[in-house]
Structure formats: C-alpha cells, structure tokens
Write a structure and sequence with these properties.
six-stranded antiparallel sheet, 1 helix, Immunoglobulin-like, disordered N terminus, about 725 residues, 6 domains, about 50% strand, mainly beta
C-alpha cells in the first residue's frame, strides 16, 4: 500500500499488487505470490514505508479431456467406404486441463465392423493401443494426440450406417476433480467404390472441351481455354485424383491459369514442357471437378491444321481413363463471306440449310451440349460459344453459321449431308458434306465438295480453291463458305436497228464495267454472232480506238488485260445482214465479258435481238466500206482519221453510191462474183492526192477489185484510205 498526503493532510491510498510466480499462472500446482507495500511523505518531508506479509496461493490441478469429432449423423458424401475395403477413422484427444497428462483408450465400439488396429500417432510413429492399458505420450496443456482406427467392412452391406465410438480417459491422479473421460463418434457408410466418370454420371466418359465446345477454331498466337470435367459417381472418396494432359506440339499450357472449380490450383498443378499434371488429394462421392486452364497456340503453326488431344485421369486404386478429345482448328471456320472481297466482308442474313441425304432439313438438338459450335468472329483470335439449333440457320453480322449435330446423327461408317446457302444479291450454293467419325466418335473428318461449280475456301482460311476441302478431327465445323455476287461485271449490248433486211449494215455497241472493288485480271470480251450476220473487218473500236478482234468462226474476242475496280469501257463494231437470212427470223447476238477476281471467275453477259424483214435483195450480195482521209498514215481507219463525205463510188456496171457524212457507203445488193469499185475523182474534195499509183488490192488505190468470195465468214469492207497532198 502506497499512501500520499496532500496539503490538507488528507491521505490518499493506492494499492500496488505485485504478483510473483514461477511458470504459467494457470498451470496446476503453480504458486501465486502476493506482497503489498505502502509509503507516504509527511509535511516535513519525512518518508515512511511498510511491507506486508507474503501471501502464497497454489493453482489447483484439474483433469479435463475432449475427444473429437462428435458426428451426430452420417454424411454419405464423406463417410462412405466401399464395402469389403478397409475404413480408417482418425480421432483427436485434446488436453483441455491445466496439467500435462497421458491418455488411455478405455472403450471402442464399432458395431458389425471389425477392428483391425488402433494406434496413437506420435512424432516417433504409430503406437499400437491395447484397450484399457496403453498410455499415450505425455501431452501438455493445450496439446493433442491423434488416434487412428482401422476397421474391416466385410460384414457391411451397401447403405449400412454404423457409428464408431472411442472413449478416452485421463491418467494423472491426485487432481481436484479426479480422472475424466470423453467419447468421440464417427460413422462408416457402406458404399460402392470410387468411380471417376463424366459430368453425366455413371457410364459417361470424362469430358474435355476447348473454349467450352468439342472443337473450336482460332488463330495462331491466340489463347484457348481447356476444361476437363470429372465426377465421382461412386460411393467412396477418390483419393489422389491425378490428371495428366500432354498437349500437342505448339500448344503450351499456362501454369498460372490452372483452377480447380474456380479456385487457383497452386501447388497441386505442375507443368513440364507441354504436359500439365494436377493432383487433387480427394474427390468425395457425388462431387465434381472442373479443371480449367489456358494454353497458348504458337504463332508459326499452319492454318487449316487441327490439333487434337485427350487427357488421362486416375486415382488411388483406379486405373487411368482417357477423356473425350478436344480439337482446335487453326484459322477461321463457319463464316459466310463475299468470295471476291475476302474475310473482311462477312455476309449477314444468309440462309444456310443443312439437308440429309434425302434432301430433308436435319432435326437438331434443342438444348446446349458439348457438341455446340463455337461461333467465330471473322478474323478474330477466338470464338464465343453459341448454340445452333435452327435449320436453316440465318447468319448474323459476323456471317457465322453452325449446326448442333449430335454424334448419333452420324453413321459409324460416315454420312452424307448437303448445305444450301442463299443470300440476296449472291449466287445460290449447293455443297456436299461427307462426314466420317474419328476419335471415339466424338470428332469427325468432313470433306466438302462444291456441286455448283463455284470455288470453296481452303481449310481454316478464306483463300479460294477449286478443289475439295477437308477438315480433320473437328465437330460442328464445316468450313468457311464463299458466296459470289450475281453481277460482278455489268454488261450492256445494243443494236443500231431493231428490224433489218438482207444487205443492211447493222452496228452493235457493248458496254461493260467491273463492279467489284478488286481488279478483274485477264479480262476479255467474247461476242458470238448468230448465223446470218458477218463481222465487217476494220470497224471495231475499243473505247474509240481501232482494236480488231480475234475472229474464230462466229466468235469475236477482245483481250482487255486488267479491269481496275469500277473501270468501264465500250466496244463498237459493224456487221452485215446476209441476203440468205430468212424473213421473219430473229438474230440473237450474245456477248460475255469475264475475268478473274481474287482467284475466281467473274463475268457478266448481255444480248441484243433484231428481226429480219423481207427485202428486195434476197439472195444477193453486199459491198460496204468507208472512204476516209488517212491522217494517221496507217492505211486503216482509226482514231484521228476522218471520213470523207460526198464521194461517189462506181460499180463496173455503172451503178454508184455516195458516201455519207462519216464516209460510209454500201451497195446493198449485187450479183455474186467479182466486181470493180472506182472512186469518181471529180467528187473528191481539194487537198487530197489523186495521183496515187497503187495496186488494186491496196487501200491507197482509187480503184479496188472485189474478188466476190461472199460467204458468211469472209465478208469484208472495201475501204479507201486517201492521203492529203504534200
């Protein structure tokens, strides 16, 4: 006690309690020492002090014990043990007293179970127990010791529920409360052995998916996500469930991405090279495991290649099982696109129908499944999962299509299906699909054949090919589908007359334009004349310049080279209506303009029709031609030359005609045979040289010989190329 005196002489006291102890204050047998002291100062400054007597208190020794667990009722998921196998149960004896103590097992009850062994588990190994006598190692306050009980279950039946109880007792005597006991309880449930299966339960294979589907398409350098899904459909825990997944060369697992039911796997996962190994300590009955991890696809791998792999899953006492396969197709697939424009032009609102070999629409699964197709963005690195249960399927903005076929819809030896595709402004398509099952009937090879003569897309890409295309080890993927516009090169054709009589001169005009945004290579014009018309040589003009076609029979050909995007052009030429044409007949003149756009043929066509009327010159022949001033000095009419009007041309019989404002003339009906044409020099304008000395077969001559070979394929103009005076 310490006392303090203030100025008024009043004493204030404070109690100073000193506790002096040896060891822990709550350990039984511990002495607690208490001493009090008091001091004060008086007004004169004198100090006074006093010390009390010592009080010693001894902590009583108490016995206390707690045996756990104390299961009130069984848990079928955690307590199940396969019948005829050993069951182990571990109890914990905790020292809840304030003294060190050792324990003995005084009772063990296990019903119909056979006690095979019981042992204390210490740092030096198991200590076998004899009921009622064996003492455990000495356990300090707060410590514990485990007891392992091994039980035989041969007398059990599936579904039996048997409690297992042990009673333990303290051994230290002389405590205030004497010896103490406690009982713990666990259960053993008779069940079947552990059975690793797929998510669908007993009998279903362990599943493996990539991007949540059986097969997906992605780009080199992308990251895909694998899922391995396993369930324990047995009646006992599966211990040390081990998953080994050896990925194909070029596919590398990412260790940091591994999760088990959404929780990072941590030390339970390891990677060596391209092999991922995951060990799960235990999988309870009816529990499921979703092992998920990401993997990187090497950037140098080839498009169109499928990378397929399976994983193995095992556990203690359970041999390894193989999962269903998962497949990654490098590149893109299942996109409808403009075949001329390429992958950057997917086609929306295209109707894609899957037909059976009989031509009927194929019924599809009405709910999502692992066979669902991964809908791929055109040119994207990965795909998102979407269920395709509509037939026909209508493409969205990305041009994606797909069909959720079930493996049961494909015959073991293969099945034939057909795809038809229709979109506004594009040619319809019809393709044959030959589908043959491969790995575990979970994947297939599909070979696509074009039945419409149009190109296909190479496997995994958008490059056009005229060959059949095969995708290997896929499911739900049929390839990219190119469509081609109905009009790619616009063509027009007109005739100068709608009705003609034999001997008439008939002019044609052809217009064309490349309406794509890509160049049309090796473009050419093929113009086919009908019987009854012959080409007038020297009359053809391409974009206004002389350009004689190649003539093969009735076909006139102009090679245009390359037509740039949106480039247009025109061709004009003249023909003669033969006297042999039947009155009332129609002359159909057809022209095709074609080229190669992005590796595929592109073309357009047009025609013009004229009617033949009865004329006065039937069964006669025609002479036609032009008189022109040869300013370009080539001897034949071309851009820059000028027709000479008003020139009179005599036939040897004295008949004559006069050139029109373009220098053109014709004798519409002459007898078959040779003839002589001569220019009347008095009608030639001044400034033109009239003294040219040239042979009768030269265009420079003022007098020309017509040989009279007038059949349908050799009719020709007789032109006069006049030169200006020097």
């Amino acid at each position: 006690m310490q006392l303090f005196l203030n100025r008024t002489g009043r004493i204030f006291a404070a109690l100073l309690l000193l506790l002096v102890a040896r060891g822990e204050a709550d350990t039984g047998g511990t002495n607690i020492v208490n001493v009090a002291s008091a001091t004060f100062n008086d007004a004169s400054g004198h100090r006074y002090s006093a010390i009390s007597n010592t009080i010693v208190t001894t902590v009583a020794k108490l016995s206390a014990i707690l045996v756990t667990p104390k299961e009130i009722q069984p848990n079928a998921a955690t307590d199940a043990v396969p019948v005829a196998s050993d069951a182990t149960r571990t109890f914990v004896i905790a020292n809840t007293s304030n003294i060190s103590d050792a324990y003995r097992i005084t009772a063990l009850t296990a019903g119909a179970l056979t006690v095979k062994s019981i042992a204390f588990l210490g740092s030096s190994g198991p200590l076998p127990v004899v009921i009622g006598s064996t003492l455990s190692p000495d356990i300090p306050p707060g410590g514990s010791v485990s007891v392992l009980v091994t039980l035989g279950t041969t007398a059990m039946h599936i579904g039996d529920r048997i409690p297992v109880q042990i009673t333990a007792q303290t051994s230290v005597t002389g405590t205030e409360n004497g010896l103490q006991s406690d009982t713990g309880e666990q259960w053993v449930v008779g069940g079947s052995s552990a059975n690793l299966t797929g998510p669908g339960g007993s009998g279903t294979p362990i599943d493996k998916l990539v991007d949540r589907v059986r097969a997906t398409s992605t780009q080199p350098g992308a990251v895909v996500t694998y899922d391995i899904m396993v369930s324990n459909s047995g009646g006992a825990p599966a211990d040390n469930v081990t998953v080994v997944d050896s990925l194909p060369t070029g596919v590398t697992p990412i260790l940091s991405s591994v999760t088990l039911n959404g929780t990072p796997a941590g030390s339970e996962a390891s990677v060596r090279g391209a092999t991922l190994t995951v060990v799960v300590p235990s999988l309870a009955p009816a529990a499921s495991l979703d092992l998920r991890f990401d993997a990187t696809i090497a950037s140098q791998l080839s498009l169109g290649t499928s990378y397929v792999n399976v994983a193995t899953v095992s556990a203690n006492g359970i041999s390894a099982s193989t999962t269903l396969p998962a497949s990654v197709l490098l590149g893109s697939s299942n996109v409808v696109y403009n075949g001329f424009m390429g992958q950057s032009h997917p086609i929306a609102n295209a109707s894609v129908s899957l037909l059976s070999s009989s031509g009927a629409l194929v019924p599809l699964n009405g709910s999502p499944s692992s066979a669902s197709v991964a809908r791929s963005e055109a040119g994207a690195a990965s795909a998102s999962t979407q269920t395709f249960t509509s037939d026909p399927d209508i493409t969205g903005p990305t041009g994606s299509y797909g069909f959720d076929l079930l493996p049961s819809q494909i015959a073991p030896g293969g099945s034939t299906f057909y795809l038809t595709i229709a979109a506004s402004g594009f040619l319809n398509r019809r393709l044959q699909l030959q589908i043959v099952p491969t790995t575990n009937n979970a994947l297939y090879n599909v070979t696509t054949t074009a039945l419409d003569g149009q190109p296909l897309a190479q496997a995994g890409g958008f490059t056009l090919t005229s060959s059949n295309v095969t995708l290997q080890n896929v499911f739900g993927l049929f390839g990219n589908l190119p469509l081609f516009p109905t009009v790619t090169i616009a063509v027009t054709k007109t005739a100068s007359l709608q009705a003609v009589t034999p001997g008439d001169r008939l002019d044609f005009s052809v217009g064309f334009q490349n309406q794509t945004t890509l160049p049309a290579l090796q473009a050419r014009v093929l113009d086919t004349l009908p019987p009854g018309l012959v080409y007038a040589p020297g009359t053809a003009r391409l974009n206004g310049a002389v350009d004689e076609p190649t003539v093969a029979g009735k076909t006139l050909t102009w090679n245009l080279g390359t037509l740039s995007p949106n480039q247009s052009g025109s061709i004009t030429y003249s023909t003669i209506v033969l006297p042999s044409d039947t009155p009332g007949s129609q002359l159909l003149n057809n022209v095709v303009v074609g080229g190669t756009v992005n590796g595929s043929s592109a073309n357009g066509s047009a025609n013009a029709t004229v009617t033949v009327l009865a004329g006065a010159f039937g069964y006669r022949r025609v002479i036609t031609g032009r008189v022109f001033l040869d300013l370009m000095h080539t001897g034949h009419f071309e851009s820059g030359d000028r027709g000479v009007p008003g020139v009179r041309i005599f036939l040897e019989d004295g008949s004559y005609v006069t050139t029109d404002r373009n220098g053109m003339y014709d004798f519409p009906s002459v007898r078959p045979g040779p003839h002589v044409l001569r220019i009347d020099p008095t009608t030639v304008p001044h400034g033109i040289d009239l003294h040219v000395r040239a042979r009768l077969n030269s265009s420079r001559s003022l007098q020309r010989l017509v040989h009279g070979v007038f059949d349908e394929s050799t009719m020709q103009d007789i032109n006069f190329a006049l030169e200006p005076t020097s």
